[in-house]
Amino acid sequence: MGSKTAINNCVLCVNLSSRLISTIEISDFERKQYLGGKGLALKLIFDNIKTGVDPLSPGNILVMMTGPTCGTAAPCGGRFVVVGKSPLTGIFASSFSGGGFGLALKKAGYDGIMVTGRADHPVYIKVDHDDVSICDATQYWGMDTYDFQETRKKDGDWVVIGPAGENLVKFANIASARRLAGRCGLGAVMGSKMLKGIVAKGNKKFGPANPEKFKKALKIAQKKVKAHENTGKALGELGTPQNIRIFGTTAIMPVKNFSKPYFDKLEQVSGETIRDGHKTKNHGCTGCFIKCGRYGKFGGKEKVSPEYETIAMMGPNLDISDLHKIADFNESLNRLGLDSISAGSVIGFAMELTEKGMLESCLRFGDGSNIKDILHDIAYRKGLGNDLAEGVRHMSEKYGGKEFANHVKGLELAAYDPRGCTGQGLGFATANCGATHLSGSTHSVEADSYLHPHGTRAKAHFVKFMQDSFDAINSAIFCIQTAYPFLEENFAYKYTPDPILKFFMRNLPALAVATTDLSDYSGLLSGLLGYPVSGGNFYKVGERIFNLERYLNNQEGISKKDDTLPGNMLKPTTQEGWGDIDLNKMLNQYYRLRGWDKNGRPKPKLLKKLSIQIQQLTKETKGYGRQ
After folding, report:
1. Which CA distances in Å does 127 have to 14, 181, 198, 243?
2. How many domains does the chain contain in total?
3. How far is Cα 48 from Cα 50, in angstroms, rounded to an integer?
4. Which residues span the domain enclosing 352?
């Protein structure tokens, strides 16, 4: 066994109301049950939060957590997660960032930080090695995320909010350098706590507890990452905009508020067009050699090149094809601290409302001339921007149009139309935080037809498998992009002819899932942590985390009635490229596979099997009343 460790087993706790600073030690049992990242963050919230708490009240808990991979040579492991109760959805949510803050916090001696309470004036938290303090931020309140970080960059690595978070926009994000924890409005939670940012620095070193085992696993993992077409070439060359052609030609990318299957100006916004016409260069998450992020020349200036989701939602979704404008929108979104997916969705919804005569506004499909002004109004809650700042669900309740209000559980759909990939529809409907693409991401295997893009066959099996395995990956933490090389570069997958692989996945999904090789993840973690982590145990960690989050959301009123999709997407379609979504059929099978009851709640027997310890059960709630 080596003298180094991959973890601190210590979480910093800061109560902004009392200004009390303390720590929580992570037990060996909790580490084995939840690994780190999303899992441990969720467990901390489960142990400390009250059911029914207002997301924007001092009682909400915000946790930022790293994983065992952070600060080590594990590939694509520098990310951190932010977890809390979302003001956009009213349920629990997580969002990930690859900025430098996670590593800096870990090097300061903490695997994570848990923030509670509310300050009586703007503050920031300073973590300088062992010295932790709450500092006045009044003079910085109102600064955008770029300017603030540039002003204070000598202090260390930051997480910060912009004006959107300060003004409690329900889809405000959190920035660390130029990487964003974008979804679910957790930036507004920081704003509600009067917390402008957190800065950290330290010099602690990390390494594997079992160096020999880790070295062996790392050699295999790195070889696979470099050999795979996606992580070894396409992401470095094109970044996530490589998906514009893939999903644009398979009727998956959203067009005009998800009302059309294809965008007739697709090539104008493609990753190849960005590469060839905008002088791009790479950047990326801390410690990641893939560097899938891009800088490019737009409008004569170097800017962060927009990712796939931003291009899709702020481009084709609004019927806009001008990359210079989309890049300009992207910079405004990043500076103001707005999630580009939700912003593009709520603006697209307002455009359709306007087109149908249900709203008086200046917003028109294909017209990008006033989008920057609208983004500013959203961030500062001015005029119509005040309504847009509440999200699509709120807009539909006030103005109508619920049939084409594209959200699930209050979270706007990520940039994948379920009619082009029906398994993704089930994934959206059942994902714990709402319509995220980072849970149940079957769109990737549906777009390349390993699973048929339409119909119900095998969809429930693969959605469950991906949800559980992704929650384990997001607790380690590895980048989700590692799923491609770690799963597809294995011998059986790589050298099985496509027709046989498709038949196997479509017709024998239970066997396909059960025989999927997770050994790269488990091998790396075994070396890092110093005790055996089998592929089966790794997967069970993810299943435990997914069910714990579902249980917490059940306590907030979530049930089968909420596992649905926008009304228009459940209607029969004759559009080329789209298929009908038989959601009820998939849901019933999915619930059976999960071991949930008919109302979509994990059964007590399942919770016990997964070692999810419920504090107290009551007859009145049939075993679902956490006291």
Report:
1. 11, 20, 8, 39
2. 3
3. 7
4. 239-410
Q: Do residues 272 and 327 touch, judged by C-beta distance below 8 A? A: no
Query: Which positions ≥6 away from 574 have C-beta within 8 Å?
Result: none
Do residues 241 and 308 make contact, with C-beta atoms less than 8 angstroms apart? yes
Q: Are residues 196 and 256 both part of a single domain? A: no
Of 378, 410, 442, which closes a domain? Answer: 410
Q: To 10 degrees, what angle do helices 519-529 and 459-476 make?
A: 20
- Do both 296 and 391 map to the same domain? yes
CB atoms within 10 A of CB 376: 16
Answer yes or no: do 281 and 396 share one domain. Answer: yes
> For residues 600 and 38, what is the distance between their CA atoms, to the nearest angstrom?
22
**Rounded to 5°, angle at Cα 385 from 382 and 388:** 150
String of DSSP letters for 180-208 = EE-STTHHHHHHHTTEEEEEEE-------
Which residues of the chain fall below pLDDT 50? 1-2, 616-627
Among 363, 386, 410, the domain-final residue is: 410
- Report whether the peptide linkage leading into residue 341 is cis, meaning its omega lies within 30 degrees of zero: no
pLDDT in tens, 262-303: 999 999 999 999 999 998 888 888 878 888 888 999 999 999
pTM more than 0.90: yes
H-assigned helices in 409-452: 422-430, 443-447
